[in-house]
Sequence to fold (504 residues):
Amino acid sequence: MSTEREIVETTDNSILLKNRRFVGAKETVAYVLEDTAASLNINDFKDRYIYDVVKIDFSYLAIQNIVATVWDTFNDTFIGVIVEKTRTRWGKFRPYLLLGQLPLTLLGLWYWLIPFMFPDTPGDYLPKWIFYFAMSIITETANTFTAVARAGFGSTITPEPLDRSRLIATANLMSHFVEDIPKQVFGVIYDLVINDKIKIKLPKLFAGFGVSFAVLGAAFCLYFFLNTRERVAQTIKKPSVIQGLKAIVTNKPMFIQVLSSFLSGFSIGSSRTNFYIDVIGSITWKTIVGIPAFPIKFISYGFVEPLRKRFSTKALWILEDAWTDALWMIVFGIGSINKNFMRKAVILPLMGIEEIFEMCVYGLRRVIPAEISNESMDYCEWKNGYRAEAMIGVAQSTISKLQQAVMGSINSIVMKKVGYVQGLKVGTQSDKTKWWIFALGTGIPIITSSLGIIPKFFYPLSAEKRNLMYAELRERRSKVADRMNKATTAEEVEEIANSQFIVK
Fold:
């Protein structure tokens, strides 16, 4: 067997990343639509919906987050095991993207109809909270199936890392162009409604957009299911739960990513949408401020491939994080001087400039973390001889959900402590509360999550080791495929399947 140096020296990027495109135009469109379906929503306004339309009391929201955490911890594990052991004619992950989307769509419809089922009820009205809570739990379970499947599918649609990076970049570029439009349109209409320029009630506005997006997302998901395939073959023998856990424990790239996410997750904050509504008095200003940066967001994707060839994944991962954090700390510092955060002539141009510079690394921020996650799944195959995308995805998802639940509870309590009053007319919160809303949307989330950048410096896959990994994987997959093609008995197939379970 060749040594590491021999393999690296004989496998330059022109061979390792052959520029072969496994994914054609039709499949790319399907992948883009599915990515769009996952983010085609008005979640930027979810706080406003819960606070001022559904009107769930902050204390009840905190309780819900705690209970949901316990459930998420349990369901993530058994769903991961189910997906990991799945082998069907449609692939390992695609069926769950479809089957998970159907209940999500149906339940999504009910989510936006809660205000009509419980009209004019206070925030502590128990039947309303119980219904909201139950539906949230069911929705989250369906969401887990789709999240685990989506994370795994990205690593199996093509065996070539450069082809995969192109696909991820293309999907993010196109889907974010599409998804930004509904959010901007909703923001303008929202402003007109709350300022009595359009005679429509907020519950009807949220229901109209929410139901439409749910149905459209389901249609996109169906198109995706019918027009994509998984190309990285799974081992015939299914990895056991123990093997899946081993894959998690011994996967250094994944551990670093999870640790970084874990430390970053201790982010106390509030949506910047709340800042524009409660402090500036209009969400439309958010759209206006973002106009100069809008084209830069899409141009930034053009930088990804050249930078991927020139710099390591680790370096780019650190860059996109540090760059964005530094920009928002500048905004926080200047905005906190002499109440500049309330002076439109100061804060709006400042946030516009921040948006321009932040969008320069937008493409990296969308592509690099996804690529690192995919690399960790390939690393599992390289080290262990089998793939465990579902269990790896579960580990990542569980950590994220635990933190979101805990921090969601903390953030709900924080909003209550800073004096936020639900249902007040726009712009009428106290000046003290307005400053806290500004701080919770800019500097405080950065400060409280700053430790997340440290693990990134210890990411283990150097350019040389990464090249070695993909060279050996390509050779190994080719040999297994040849042996499978030559097998004539079930016993031979079983022997080949078992031989893939190796530890390097």
In short: DSSP finds 24 helices and no strands in the chain. The chain has one domain: 26-499. Residues 161-194 form the longest helix (34 residues).
